[in-house]
């Protein structure tokens, strides 16, 4: 096992979690965009690894500066901002072959004062986060460009309309079948567009609505069934979405047994459990769209 | 220093973070209440500490069971549920002198489907949490009863209408004065009612609205000024509130210097910083209401 | 309810979580101190609250700068650094009546290389954090000075030597008695010294050892008994400790019932549960030392 | 875009975060293993997704039960336990094609009492977590079996012996070059063994030592150089390791400018920053070992 058989494999580097906030004061009715931006560069960085030669290493501090500088012209949407940054980095030097921009976007709503939305005072929207991932491989018009949109932290729950029965039983099976349970999950979804030129905010809102309405409207025999219905709804609504990946933890709500206290419990009192939890992961896709593994490189999740 | 000079001082114990969810299915339009309940008992538990004698120790498992059993009859509001539980525990045994119930309440909104709120599908409201603390000392009609309501995790931001200048300068002062900055904070508020018999949900909603509107409407020369205006608004709106304690981290948004890149930055691009942060804590109170330190025992925060 | 009855109550403000790291390179064998420092000032800040007048408001940015500047001369120990800072702030202006410095200290150990501790490479010690709180009220030699030391996040467990039985049973009691259970907790402890001039590191190490040895050595009939034994041990070891407050979550490890699978489980397989958990809080104190509520102002925890 | 073009893509499901603790009391000197186990099954679950037919869905509750039941015979090591579980699930039904077991292992050390390690009292080791991922595709002797070991949360720092200079400068570059800086990171590493029959604990300890010693011993011109040296050391030490993937956040410690206060700062006082941070990710591999993408399916991280 001579040392010469050891080599550098795949690698990337960048600046993670640049917290940039851009305010538009062009009218009295201000707007703001609140992002967490992470950049990663891919290319030939072998000398940095093997010899500490940084001639190819665009400093992560420079990447951070670039994010702030680009925000000066306005951010528009996470996807549009990611495209600008990824194309810039991918084309910055001949040794850079590609760039990935990951963005989290935090929503803000106008505070109502006397029933009217305020011009410049906002409250942050809960735990849900909008996400975008832009990957650009190559430079100029021939570059491969991929855009993922998504969301995470969208916690949803149905108080009825969920069953679970008919599963196989083996030596280790003790779970009772149920025809009525609480179904709750925290949706993480990412979907891939086949276009890099869309009305991003409208496309996002449409997919989000499709996911929510399908979750609510599906009488669920399995969380897998809800997952598929949600993915299918997103694809049916928007022909520019090629595939969607969903990760749905089954946030168990167990009916509490109150019989020891002389009480019945007709689907009223539940214990919300932390761990363990089921975890259902799946892709819903069009069969006529070629896969694009490059779009998903470095994005967590199975599928 | 003989060992006999050492003794047990103040103490309490209980079960923390019972995650109880109660569903009301009495009509097709379901509702749910989602709580995190912590109970603490106070009284004579000396023998448990010094001799391991548990004759006085109502098991924390029993406390948990009681929470679930009481939820069978409906939770109504966090404050009402806390009152039922605290009165029960405080009067359960003669060696128990008091009980404290702390509650976090998570909000859920109906998912709109085709524009109409769904009957039994919900999404969880963001990061904001409604809180309640009920303390009962003694048993029966002579018991001292205190109710705190509050909220935490309400993140708010103003894009203008905030200044900071006129502060003293010493050897260690480098901060520039500003006539226009972003002001952002995550509100933690707790207020004390002088009544134990209110329409709790209405009172909570009113105080929350007062806080939000005062934050939005105050042209702020100091975060302290916003704090006072918020507290004052809550007290002015509701005569049953005796005092309010506010903890407001100053979530700094620093204007990013873009001059190195040949760019100006007329209040457009900011960096949202994590740490350190300012922390402003204060009480706003009525001068004709006696203080009630027992109401605040064991609740974090200065004041 | 005229508005004139509303007034400002107790308040404080400061800069929270200044992450200062100081390296001592005075010999080839470097050392480092890694702190998270929070300062709070108390005094007359009414005008800032009611009129936005900042003439009394030492900017939190100035407080941050002061922390870094004072670190230039070395930090020595968290307690000593807190004393320097608190005395400085408390005496800085006549309208400031007192200051509180809260510190978290993160430990680092030398990385062993070939069995020898490295001169300048370190790994951070786990989840345990050393804490200090210094409060100074007044200025000069007549000031009231209080020093709390402590630790948090010290997770300990005994695989035997813990029982729980003899507790009262009521309608809501279902817990079985046990003569052998796992006992686990995450220790948060804070103790008050009666001196402001000690060998702080030695005192800390002694108290920590006392806590650990008492936890390990106590055959526990109740977590309360372990708590008291731990506190007593700390006080017996060090006459400069007047009182100690302990908060011990009972991190439940439930024996898993394997009988449905035809297996016994003689205290082998457990499920570590997250929530709910028992929470035991208590003070152990000397009866001949006057209490010092000012030392504990603004520090979370009952007692 | 007819609906028929939509189909289920890749998917898996399982039970996440089963917190199993196994105690060995076979001698007076107890030992314990503390794991967080997640199982995922792969195979034909289409009917569950498209029709809510659960005939193929081994309940996640059953998977949880299996984890506990298997622990009855002892856990040995995370890798060995993962192999037992993965082989069981992969061979449980003909519609199951494979299984992935992900494990986090928390370390515990004996509490020293009077200088001697205690027989049954332990304290938990910090923030570092040992990890294992076992993937089995197929059943019986022909199955493809992959074992990854690793660690996460190992925070390391060098107070000197780190430089960063020679990087390219463009319009957005403002960073100064440095010949001496603090280098700190939180190591996440995963490595792939080419054998499924090793002394797992010894192999883990060896890799961990190699990583630590290489971090400490490398005079670093770039964090990439440290990454490569660390990976290379692990591979050189153990011929059974085919490749290692490292993710190293650059936890910036910025030298604090004290000149405004009339103070110099010769590499003494630093500010530990939270965000943004550099993020360096890379693989070090043997060139004579075929890649095994199946081993990494569903494991976060680039490469």
From TrEMBL, chains A, B, C, D:
The keyword Ribonucleoprotein does not apply. Keywords: Oxidoreductase, Purine metabolism. Pathway: Purine metabolism; urate degradation; (S)-allantoin from urate: step 1/3. Its EC number is 1.7.3.3. Gene3D superfamilies: Urate Oxidase. Pfam families: Uricase (PF01014). It catalyses: urate + O2 + H2O = 5-hydroxyisourate + H2O2. Catalyzes the oxidation of uric acid to 5-hydroxyisourate, which is further processed to form (S)-allantoin. Belongs to the uricase family. NCBIfam families: urate_oxi. This is Uricase. It comes from Blastococcus jejuensis.
């Amino acid at each position: 096992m001579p040392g010469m058989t050891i080599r550098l494999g795949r690698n990337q580097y960048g600046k993670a979690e640049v917290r940039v906030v851009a305010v538009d004061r062009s009218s009295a009715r201000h707007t703001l965009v609140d992002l967490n931006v992470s950049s990663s560069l891919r290319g030939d960085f072998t000398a940095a690894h093997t010899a500490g030669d940084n001639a190819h290493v665009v400093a992560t501090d420079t990447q951070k500066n670039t994010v702030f500088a680009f925000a000066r012209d306005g951010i528009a949407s996470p996807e549009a901002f990611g495209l600008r940054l990824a194309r810039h980095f991918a084309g910055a030097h001949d040794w850079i072959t590609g760039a990935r921009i990951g963005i989290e976007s935090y929503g803000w709503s106008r505070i109502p004062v006397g029933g009217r939305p305020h011009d410049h005072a906002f409250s942050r929207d809960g735990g849900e986060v909008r996400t975008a991932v832009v990957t650009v491989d190559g430079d100029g018009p021939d570059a491969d460009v991929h855009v993922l949109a998504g969301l995470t932290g969208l916690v949803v729950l149905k108080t009825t309309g969920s069953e679970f029965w008919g599963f196989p039983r083996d030596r280790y099976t003790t779970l009772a079948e149920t025809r009525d349970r609480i179904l709750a999950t925290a949706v993480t979804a990412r979907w891939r567009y086949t276009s890099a030129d869309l009305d991003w905010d409208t496309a996002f809102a449409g997919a989000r609505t499709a996911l929510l309405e399908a979750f609510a409207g599906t009488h669920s025999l399995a969380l897998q069934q809800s997952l598929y219905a949600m993915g299918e709804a997103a694809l049916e609504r928007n022909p520019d979405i090629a595939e969607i990946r969903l990760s749905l933890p089954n946030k168990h709500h167990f009916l509490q047994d109150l019989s020891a206290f002389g009480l019945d419990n007709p689907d009223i009192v539940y214990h919300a459990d932390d761990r363990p939890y089921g975890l259902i992961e799946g892709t819903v896709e069009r069969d006529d769209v070629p896969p694009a593994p490059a779009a998903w490189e470095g994005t967590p999740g199975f599928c």
